[in-house]
Sequence to fold (765 residues):
Amino acid sequence: MADDFAPPGRLAGTGEYDPASAEFAELRELLLGGERRQLEELRRRLDSLGITPEELADLLPEAIALRAGRDRQLARALAPTVENAISESVRRNPREIATAIFPVLGPAIRKAIAETMSGLVESINRAVEYSISLRGIGWRIEGWRTGVPYAQIVLRHSLVYRVEQVYLIHAETGLLLGHAAAADLKVADADLISGMLTAIQDFVSDSFAIQEGGELRTFCVGELTVMVERGPQAVIAAVVRGPPPDTLLLQLQDALENLHFQFATGFAEYNGDAAPFAGARSRLEELLVTVLNTDRGQRARGRAVWLRWAVPLLLMVLVVGGLMWRSRQRWSAAVGRLEAAPGIVLVGAERDWGRWKFRGLRDPLAADPAVLLAGLGKDPSRIEGTWETYLSMEPELILARARRTLAAPATVQLSLSGDTLAARGTAPLAWVAASASLGPPPGASHLDLSGVGALLPDELAGLERSIEGNRILFPAGSAALGGGAGDGLRALAATFGGLAAGVAGMGYRVNLELIGRADTTGTESANQTLSRMRVDAVRARLVSLGLPAEGLNATGIGTSQPLPAPDEAERARINRSVSFIVHLQPAARQTNGTR
Amino acid sequence: MIQKKICMVGVFGTGKTCLVQQFVHSRFSVKYHSTVGVKIDRKVVPVEEGEVTLLLWDLAGRDGHGDITVSYLRGAHGVLYVVDGTRRETFDQVFELRDIVEKAVGPLPSVVALNKSDLSGEWKLGKADEQALTAKSWHHFTTSAKTGTGVEAAFAWIAREAVRQGSAPS
Fold:
């Protein structure tokens, strides 16, 4: 073919240049040029017997689009090369890739963070809901009752579905090629289960004489659903707790297709050894998912979220409020007690992080603030007091101080009226005398001891009783002292002297009251006179015996206030008499303590 | 680890389940349980190449004129036929069973267990029968699921054959 045409401009066979032939060549080019070039192109293509890069460049986009539309083989085939290319590019110049993907990366990262945060909030919400709600408490009780961990109970109740196990089974032999199970699940006999799943399939197919292509695809055992997807070489079976969604079947099919593609050689050469299928495990594990019921309506959930927070919040507010109220009550009570306490002047009171601080004045005799505040339930170590000492003029404190300074015995009651301190009751004569000499304690201007009955020491009391036991008797109608009376009066005068000497040591002197009486015989005025005469006679005799006249008060009372006696004659006899009453009086001129 | 599917085939009451129980769990029960459908058990057996896991498909025994369920045989790597040495008819039927199996899944490594050898007084098989097996190039073992005699050997043999067959170029 190459010699069909001579080169243009030369005569065929001669090799010489011929102007006419140049014209011929031109003519030939005009007539046949296109075909000739086509012929040369065809010849070149036949010679190379392959596809040229130019042709490939023309066909490639169309070819890629065509194959990508048909299945995913192209993507799978290209994946390793593309990955290598990218990693190589990153290795050589990371900046290039970083710049290229930056516009995508920023929003993606923001989105990821937002989703993580929302997931976190969601899980906190759920935790709050589960731990505080009635339902959560119920689940805790259930867990405690059944001994199942709380987490599993929560999972069981809030589970929508969970793919617990996935089996990859050799279709023909029923032998296990791969198995994946949830982390908390222990499956010891995966290979037996694999065999039995195959046997069950065979059994069902045989029993119901199912046509080719029909087989057991799903069966339920209690809460578990077993989904089986059959491929030409392998069967994939998923054990699902809870109702599985339709999409799960599609996922299983997709996984099965991928595995068939990925392990095509492995299936072709399978002889019972599952080792070549080790890589399938990660693909099976991808199918293990747990879906919890978080797909409630957004609005309803929004409300529920507030409700969920509201309950603990309300509880917290109540608790905190209650504590604050109680603390406030205690504080007011404490301030009230201190303000009311006599001898305490509260100047400042403040609360500082649970510590109570009081400042003020306190009389040494006032109640101890610690004791006052003891019953309030406040930790005493958290109460501080700064107290300046002062003397309180409050009646309670004046009385307390008086009792202390006077060393008043328990039988004496003290009371304050205006600025006069009055004592009542009975007390030893020595105390009365000492108190009289001490005078009024601070806070009182006068000390009134008149209400105190002074008790004599025993020996002096005996003398007193002896004096008062005397009775000088007179004959009827007479005021003359008989001989016997003279002796009695002498003895009385001696006793009187002893008593006077005894009480003088304690700053007292003795007054003797003489009371003259008469019997009822005769007129009243006569009897009055008679009684007066009798008492005067006795007084005169006692004065003559040496008793001080100013200490002897004589009174004739006639028949008034007669001495009692069981019969008329005896009464008449004992009332014709003069009797004695001893009075003690402070020797110095002072507020008198009498008896 | 290599796994092999081995099917137990035989007439009912020949002791298939008992052989598996003796082999896997080393126990024997005189109580008879008829197997319904299929039971699957597993045992790891040492072979020259290492270890092999045998998945033992204990098929329900052939009952009267009913055939065994051949779909359970699919994909099997070996068959262990079981004959009751005290029931002559079980020996005769083992040849029919072999035909059924080979028709369904093609030729496979197989071995015959002449079981219940502990009942020597009732033994119905003789030298001629064993020669008949050998003539058909059929390996056999005399076994007793009760005493365990020959059980390990029979399973070990089928395990070895199944592995050898699997590794042979096809």
In short: Chain A has five domains: 1-50, 141-292, 302-389, 395-453, 457-586. The two ends of chain A are 175 Å apart (CA to CA).
